[in-house]
Write a structure and sequence with these properties.
It contains 3 helices and 6 strands; from the N terminus they run H-E-E-E-H-E-E-H-E. Strand 4 and strand 5 form a beta hairpin.
Length: 157
């Protein structure tokens, strides 16, 4: 019976102070908001594994387009329901006519600073909006599978 009458050293009575609870909630809200703001506006220094960054070039202005002859600039055109590369009056299919494009010297050879040669096909922008983006990408896929890069060119008047 002696055990029942012992007092507990810790007071179990709660004090009713709404100011403390309000201050605690406000403090937590400010901390969470500050953390979210810090995470969204902070500059990310690291990249995802396997993700490559774009190549950075040392030259401030590259004027490779000025040296491209007009006969090496193609347009994408539709003919008989298919998409073709049009050089003047000549039509080339992006998948079937790669050998003919090389034979007719329509593909430009560019040397990079390491001395490697790249094959590039220059395309003029389609301002008529008759060629869909999916068709552009399909043509690029056929050319890239053959090792030919695609660059956009603009005719300077």
């Amino acid at each position: 019976m002696a055990r029942r009458h012992r007092k507990i050293g810790i007071s179990l009575e709660r004090t009713q102070d709404p100011g403390k609870d309000l201050f605690a909630y406000l403090f937590l809200l400010i901390m969470v908001f500050s953390f979210m703001l810090l995470m969204t506006t902070g500059e990310r220094k690291s990249t995802m594994p396997g993700q490559t960054a774009p190549q950075q070039h040392e030259t401030s202005g590259r004027s490779l387009l000025a040296a491209v002859p007009l006969e090496k600039i193609a347009r994408l055109a539709k003919k008989d329901g298919s998409l073709y590369l049009k050089f003047g009056n000549e039509f080339y299919h992006p998948d079937r006519d790669v050998d003919r494009l090389e034979k007719d010297h329509r593909i430009a050879l560019i040397s990079d600073k390491d001395g490697r040669q790249k094959r590039v096909l220059y395309l003029e922008e389609d301002k008529t909006n008759k060629v869909l983006l999916a068709e552009y990408l399909e043509a690029f896929q056929h050319l890239s599978l053959k090792g030919i890069g695609v660059a956009f060119a603009e005719r300077v008047k």
